[in-house]
C-alpha cells in the first residue's frame, strides 16, 4: 500500500488579488498615457497650429489690403472691393449689437467711450479726470471697414512686423485672427487723441509677442488707404494691471503707475498686450506720438 504524500501549494490565496492589482495599474497607465497624448496635441494645436493659421491669414489680409489700395480711387471707394462691410456716414465702424459673429459690443460710457472690456485686453476707459475732452473723431473714409474687418496695416520695422488692424477687440472676430484690434471709442490713425490697439502676445499669430523689445525712437507706421502715419515710440510700461484704463485714455497716463504716461493733448498710439508670456495676469504697454503724415 502506497503512502499518501500531501502536496502543499503556497501563496495560491494571494495570486488573484495580485493579478487584479496589476491589471488595474495597467489600465490606469493606459488612461494616463492617453490623456497625456490628448493634452499634448491640444497644446500643439493651441501654441503652434493656431499661430500658423492666424499668421498666414493675417499676412494674406495685409497683401489683400495693399492690392486694394493700388486700385484707382473710384474702385477703391467701393467697400466690397476689399471685403469691407459698408459703413454709415459719420459712424464709428462698429456694427450695431456687437462685433460680427462675436460678443456684444461694450456699452457706451458717460463720455461715449466703451465700458470695461473682457479678459485678455485692458478695459476701455472713460475720460481720465482732469484730462482734456477728446476731439471728435472724423467720419470714416469711403471703404472704411466695419468691426472685425481690417482697414489698416501696422508696420513695426524694428520687429519686421506687418499686421492688419481692425476695429474692436473681440477675440473671435479680431484678435484670434492674428489682427491688431482698435479699442472702441479711441481716435482713428493720425488724429488728435489716442489710437489704441490690442494684440495677442502668444498663440493666434501672436503679433505683439516682441513689442517688449521696442525702445524710444523706434518707428510705428500705420498705413491706411492713401495715407501713412509714422509714430515714434516714447515710453514703454513693462507691467500694469488689466484694469489700468488710463493707458488708453485720450491723453494716456497709467492710473496704477502715474509716473508713466503723458500730460498734454497730442496724437498718440498705444500698443497693449498680455504679460508675462503665456499669462494674462498683467498688461504690457507701448506708447508713441505722431511724427509725420504722408
CATH architecture: Beta Barrel
- List the uncertain runs: 76-145
Number of domains: 1
What would you report as the Rg, rounded to the nearest angstrom? 27 Å
CATH superfamily: Sortase
Helix and strand composition category: alpha+beta
Helix count?
Answer: 2
Largest sheet: 8 strands, mixed, barrel
The succession of helices and strands, N to C, reads: HHEEEEEEEE
* Average pLDDT metric: 77
Q: What is the global morphology?
A: elongated
Question: Would you state the CATH class?
Answer: Mainly Beta
Q: Give the helix proportion (percent range).
A: 10-25%
User: What gap, in angstroms, lies between the N and C termini?
Assistant: 120 Å
What does this structure look like?
The chain has 294 residues and is α+β, with helices and mostly antiparallel strands. It has one domain (45-85, 109-293): Beta Barrel (Sortase, Chain: A), CATH 2.40.260. Helix content is 21%, strand content 22%. It is built from 2 helices and 8 strands. It has helices spanning 12-69, 73-76, and strands at residues 150-156, 161-167, 180-182, 193-198, 219-224, 227-240, 267-275, 282-293. The chain has an 8-stranded mixed barrel. A hairpin with a 2-residue loop joins strand 5 and strand 6 (227-240). The longest helix has 58 residues, at 12-69. It is elongated and about 115 Å long. Residues 76-145 have low confidence and may be disordered.
Amino acid at each position: 500500500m502506497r503512502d499518501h504524500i500531501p502536496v502543499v501549494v503556497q501563496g495560491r490565496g494571494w495570486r488573484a488579488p495580485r493579478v487584479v492589482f496589476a491589471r488595474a495599474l495597467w489600465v490606469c497607465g493606459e488612461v494616463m498615457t492617453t490623456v497625456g497624448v490628448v493634452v499634448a496635441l491640444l497644446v500643439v494645436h493651441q501654441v503652434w497650429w493656431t499661430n500658423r493659421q492666424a499668421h498666414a491669414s493675417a499676412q494674406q489680409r495685409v497683401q489683400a489690403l495693399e492690392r486694394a489700395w493700388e486700385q484707382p480711387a473710384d474702385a477703391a471707394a467701393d467697400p466690397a472691393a476689399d471685403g469691407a462691410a459698408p459703413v454709415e456716414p459719420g459712424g464709428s465702424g462698429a456694427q450695431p449689437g456687437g462685433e460680427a459673429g462675436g460678443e456684444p459690443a461694450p456699452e457706451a460710457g458717460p463720455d461715449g467711450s466703451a465700458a470695461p472690456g473682457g479678459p485678455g485686453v485692458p478695459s476701455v476707459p472713460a475720460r481720465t479726470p482732469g484730462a482734456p475732452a477728446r476731439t471728435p473723431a472724423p467720419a470714416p473714409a469711403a471703404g472704411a471697414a466695419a468691426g472685425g474687418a481690417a482697414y489698416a496695416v501696422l508696420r513695426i520695422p524694428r520687429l519686421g512686423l506687418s499686421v492688419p488692424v481692425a476695429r474692436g477687440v473681440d477675440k473671435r472676430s479680431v484678435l484670434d485672427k492674428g489682427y491688431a484690434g482698435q479699442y472702441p471709442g479711441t481716435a482713428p490713425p493720425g488724429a488728435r487723441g489716442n489710437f489704441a490697439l490690442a494684440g495677442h502676445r502668444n498663440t493666434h499669430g501672436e503679433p505683439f509677442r516682441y513689442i517688449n523689445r521696442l525702445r524710444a525712437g523706434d518707428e510705428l507706421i500705420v498705413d491706411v488707404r492713401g495715407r501713412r502715419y509714422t509714430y515714434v515710440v516714447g515710453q514703454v510700461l513693462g507691467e500694469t494691471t488689466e484694469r489700468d484704463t488710463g493707458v488708453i485714455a485720450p491723453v494716456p497716463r497709467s492710473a496704477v503707475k502715474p509716473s508713466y504716461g503723458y500730460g498734454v493733448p497730442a496724437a498718440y498710439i498705444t500698443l497693449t498686450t498680455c504679460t508675462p508670456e503665456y499669462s494674462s495676469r498683467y498688461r504690457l504697454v507701448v506708447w508713441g506720438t505722431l511724427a509725420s503724415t504722408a
